[in-house]
Amino acid sequence: MSSDLLDALVALEKQKGISRDILVEAIEAALVTAYKRNFNQAQNVRVDLNLEKGTMKVYSRKDVVEEVEDERLEISLEEAQQINPVYELEDIVEQEVTPRDFGRIAAQTAKQVVTQRVREAERGIIYDEFVDREEDIVNGIVERFDAKNLFIGLGKVEAVLPQTEQIPTESYEPHDRVKVYITKVEKTSRGPQVFVSRTHPGLLRRLFEMEVPEIYDGTVEIKSIAREAGDRSKVSVYTANEEIDPVGACVGARGARVQSISNELSGEKIDIVEWSEDPVVFVANALSPSKVLNVQVDEEERSTTVVVPDYQLSLAIGKRGQNARLAAKLTGWKIDIKSETDARELGIYPVDGEMFEESEENGLADLLEEISPVDEVEEPIDLYADEEHNE
After folding, report:
1. For the chain, what are the domain ranges?
2. pLDDT digit string (tens) for 249-305?
3. Dist. CA 62–CA 238, nearest whole Å
4. What is the C-alpha to C-alpha distance for residues 348 and 339, in angstroms, rounded to an integer?
5. Is the Cβ–Cβ distance between 236 and 229 less than 8 Å?
6. What residue stretches are annotated with the S1 motif domain (predicted)?
7. pLDDT tens profile 184-200
8. CB-CB contact of 358 with 368 (8 Å)
9. pTM above threshold 0.70
10. Is the Cβ–Cβ distance between 280 and 298 less than 8 Å?
11. Contact 149, 161 (CB under 8 A)
């Protein structure tokens, strides 16, 4: 038995990465329990399993005391010294008590322990692997689904994609390949449980890191993300390198980079805007693709009042208020949007101070005092004024 067991433990150590010494300790502890259960013994015992020599012995352990109260656990100093004169009080005397037919019980116990420990070790290895990948993106394969959850195969483990974390516009079929974001890894009695998401903003962040080298190496930084999964997202980016256009780096040549990310998210539209520490500029940028005439900031309330051209009002607000809602999430500022006509009637526009001027940095409308009123100017073609931007 010992020779076969030794070979099995050596193989497990190589294949599963489980230490042979740990397995031997577990087997010895299980054999102690098996000895007490099968031979009705309540005494303290120790099992010595020597795989190299092919021996297995059981030793009783008794404390050396002056007066014995429990013969199963204690031995007098006089009796102990008869065994070996070197024993003193508080020493432990060990004597072999190995039963003749203990080998069969030992073999069964060792098999059970090894199987259990291998399973536990594999679960531990899987848990350690995936707990380190929380907030990371992984590739998986759709395996099965029930009424609410989708189960994604990640190789050694099956992850759960809850219904609330699925993109509403997506449909899934078995064997579909899909990228998911690991939100949480838990230990359970059945092994590690991995939870993933397709709607988490972190998924969008990781996709940009994979697609845009400037973000991956830290040259361009994603400052904030506002996302309504499956429909539209806004991403603010920043770089301290004046020679790099952060928005252009994320968009890519002819929009190739952002289009690749959009395709991965089933056509989700993505607006990329430049971050600014100035809330006036940041809020104006965040309302892209609409033009902004003026932004007034209330620092105490952390709110802004934004003035846009009359013909851009529906575009600024967006379908069901989506554009304004995402801009508010992206910036962290409340945004109240007014048309130019309403703002003039309320006396909040024009205001004294610097107006936005069209530039490469902010891309805002050129506002000159001598410009004709909006209703006298031929209305420009609005490429964004499609039905999904209307209220």
Report:
1. 2-130, 133-197, 276-391
2. 999 999 999 999 999 999 999 999 999 999 999 999 999 999 999 999 999 999 999
3. 72
4. 11
5. no
6. 135-199
7. 999 887 888 999 999 99
8. no
9. no
10. no
11. yes
